[in-house]
Design brief:
alpha/beta; five-stranded parallel beta sheet
């Protein structure tokens, strides 16, 4: 256990927990350094320039997690971990969440394998392509690669290709000169040059227009960009990481992504699985999210073993983002949130997200609606608020219009977007939302352009 600093007496007294945690933390490599101290030993081990997270261990009858002040000169956080059962999943999850604070949180063998590959990959400059559903932690993994690389002191810039206007994306990526186009009142170096010496993450790269993909390919091949309005190329030194929530080989086969750019980026692919397939990650992630959303002056509410078992049964269509929503709700509902020793998140505090689905038939206000498996939060509503809400009516009408237009156009998204008066990108987003809501979009649209 080179990455865990622990005395023999502490290792023996807390052997079951220390051994289990050591097996996980050793897989994470040099980015996760931990010091474990016997709780009664005062814990004066955080010295000037210390680069290890310190955890004081107490084995007793209660479960409790506290964040301790960092001594002057210390750089890493300190915790006090009280646990009752050293073999329990909640005790291990709490320890791992403290050890991995600020980085990737993982305990599942598949996730640990990806992190081990990512750390080895970080030592080189080859491009990385990260695939996985939305909300699985692709940007977190990208930052881990950057922080583990020789470029860690350089900039890390994340660019969401889907969140930027198509007309501005080229100027934002490659830069422009003053007066290059209307509104260009000053020179902009662009993200490629801003990330010089560091790492550039191109997130949701599958949403990049085909015309811009060709320019991106040339930039990657030549290691230089030509800003809009300039005549001379500018060299850059950037490590490229691309991420996509869609299957890029399928996008290539259907003509929506350039094959040559795909092969340029696909030097070392990494894939993140949905959260429902990484059950061992759920508990430490839940503790890490509870730490993130609990004020610094309060004790972190403990997540009971029963609550963790309930979390593991959920399907998590929203992945880690949905888990974050559930934990934030649980923090508000948990008894003793004010920092008392009895603060605990139990099964009754867990409220899962309800996925919106298309309503086929109007539901009369007088008809009883079956209660979900986990009841939603009870929010006060005015007495007059009966029947369907305007927002749901608009969503249903929009969904029906999109699906009917697609069917009328034989599944062609280009033709359907033209008839609907929206861009093809906007239509793709609407269709993705319908898929997440459980609509059989593929059967209607057929994926055709």
């Amino acid at each position: 256990m080179d990455y865990i600093d622990v005395t023999n007496s502490t290792a023996q007294r807390h052997a079951p927990l220390v051994q289990r945690a050591g097996a996980v933390i050793a897989t994470m490599g040099s980015t996760c350094k931990l010091r474990l101290i016997e709780g009664e030993a005062d814990g004066k081990a955080c010295v000037h320039g210390d680069d290890r997270t310190t955890i004081l261990l107490f084995h007793g009858r209660t479960n409790r997690l506290d964040r301790l002040p960092v001594p002057r000169g210390g750089r890493k956080p300190r915790f006090a971990l009280n646990y009752a059962d050293p073999a329990s999943e909640d005790a291990l999850a709490a320890l791992i969440s403290c050890a991995t604070l600020g980085g990737p949180v993982a305990a599942d063998p598949d996730s640990l394998s990806v992190l081990a590959l990512a750390e080895r990959l970080a030592m080189s400059d080859i491009p990385v392509l990260i695939g996985g559903p939305t909300g699985t932690g692709k940007e977190v993994l990208s930052r881990f690669i950057h922080d583990s690389s020789p470029r860690k002191n350089g900039p890390f810039i994340a660019v969401n290709c889907a969140a930027m206007p198509e007309a501005m994306l080229e100027a934002l990526l490659f830069g422009h000169t003053k007066g290059a186009f209307t509104g260009a009142t000053s020179t902009n170096e662009g993200f490629f040059r801003a990330a010089d010496g560091g790492t550039l993450l191109l997130d949701e790269i599958a949403e990049m227009p085909l015309a811009l993909q060709a320019k991106l390919l040339r930039a990657l091949q030549e290691g230089e960009v030509v800003p809009i309005g300039a005549t001379q190329p500018v060299r850059f030194d950037v490590r490229i990481i691309a991420a996509a929530n869609r299957d890029l080989p399928t996008e290539v086969a259907q003509g929506r992504f350039r094959a040559d750019l795909f092969y340029r980026l696909n030097v070392f692919p990494l894939a993140l699985k949905p959260l429902r397939e990484r059950l061992e990650d759920i508990a430490p992630l839940a503790f890490a999210l509870a730490q993130r959303h609990t004020p610094a002056h309060r004790a972190v509410p403990w997540i009971s073993a029963e609550a963790i078992s309930l979390l593991r049964t959920h399907g998590w269509p929203g992945n880690v983002r949905e888990l974050e929503n559930v934990i934030r709700r649980a923090l508000l509902l948990a008894e003793g949130l004010g920092g008392s020793p009895s603060a605990e998140i139990r099964p009754e505090h867990i409220r899962f997200d309800c996925v919106a689905k298309l309503v086929e038939e109007p539901v009369a206000a007088s008809e009883p609606v079956p209660a979900p498996a986990m009841p939603p939060l009870e929010m006060p509503e005015p007495a007059a608020a009966t029947g369907r809400k305007l927002a749901s009516i608009v969503q249903v009408s929009e969904a029906k219009a999109i699906l009917e237009t697609l069917a009328a156009c034989g599944g062609s998204r280009i033709a359907a977007a033209r008839q609907l008066g929206i861009s093809e990108r906007t239509l793709r987003y609407r269709l993705a939302s319908l898929r997440e809501a459980g609509m059989p979009v593929a059967a209607v649209g057929g994926g055709r352009r």
